[in-house]
Amino acid sequence: MQRTVEASPASGQRGVRVQAQAPLVESVSCYCRVDAGLKTVAGARKLVPGAKLCIQPDILPNGPKPRSQRRGRSRTQAPFLPGLPDDLAIACLIRVPRADHQNLRLVCRTWNRLLSKNYFYSLRASMGTAEEWVYVFKRDRDGKISWHAFDPINQLWLPLPPVPAEYSEALGFGCAVLNGCNLYLFGGKDPLRGSMSRVVFYNARTNKWFRAPSMLCKRHFSGSCVLNNCLYVAGGECDGIHGTLQSAEVYDPNRNKWAFVGEMSNGMVPLIGVVYEEKWFVKGLDSNRQVVSEVYEPSSNSWSAVNHGMVIGWRNPSISMNGRLYSSDCRDGCKLRVFDDATDSWRRFMDSKLHLGSSQSLEAAAFVSLNGKLAVIRNNMSISLVDVSNPEMSFETNSAHLWETISGKGQLKTFMSNLWSSIAGRTGLKSHIVHCQVLQV
Questions:
Q1: What spatial distance separates the first Cα and last Cα of the chain, rounded to whole Å?
Q2: pTM of the model
């Protein structure tokens, strides 16, 4: 209640304004509807003193907050799994098989954000729940490139997003894996535009392709390897340049930059390469189509010719595992050889006692390390695993029990059908594997 008293101007006295205020009273009423312009309790108290906190949701005790703060509060209040602490919920989610990760992303935005962070996959690796999948690039009879992923736990081939358009028909491009989950494609020869220096990479965590800095030199049919999580590329050919290339370069993913390294003694088109004892060994053809072999030492940044026993009996495919160098001893990869440093020679190592045949579809295309075992990948996409952890194993020892065949696409074709195709003269290679890698997520 308020009262105002004014003196009359005719009296010649100045006007006097006197205000009388009612005593404060305790009120339990809600004054959120007192005035449409009032948005806070403080505003209501100015009009009606003694008003308690309003419980209406549209009036905030501390006034309206920025939208970003409200969004941040909602994020922190939304648990990953209702009723569980976030750390326990994450411990449950990192144990979900990788094949179901795409479904997890569809549950809610919180889970989708979690599965998009490196933190989630670092926890999987530290807890031993990370999975290794096989990725293969194939070229069909029409020259088209396709690729597939194999889940060894469920023994299923899974679909993948299409390769970038520039690599759908490219020839002689390179392939390598950095950081365990990024698969790089680089160089190659486009049927229309010629040699390329382009670089793209696929992130297995996001299932998407990205661009990377281009190489310093255009090249195709080059050799490549990974040393200390850096990608080395050397040799190859380039349209417009006569002969083979001697240049070499390295890509550091941490700096996201390419740099030249020491040149090769002789330019070549590498046909086979492997990292062994922290050195990069390559073997290929020079400009005169003569077989040459060289080794690169990162410590001295230099190349040198090599002619010892390792490269003399070196065959493709091959792989370095557990400090030892293995190579195929037959066309279908069912026999293995190992390099003996003491005698500087190759010796027979293991035999599966189950040979599939000598057709091109059954030819071993690559050796990769899969879950601690040596995996033999064939052109028909059948996969055999062999345990090579015992260095005392000899060729004479019965090692057939150490071999395991994983059911793949190629297992649908039996030995009799292969034999009948050979008799009928239908042995033409429909498709063949050009690259094979293993990614961990």
A1: 73
A2: 0.78
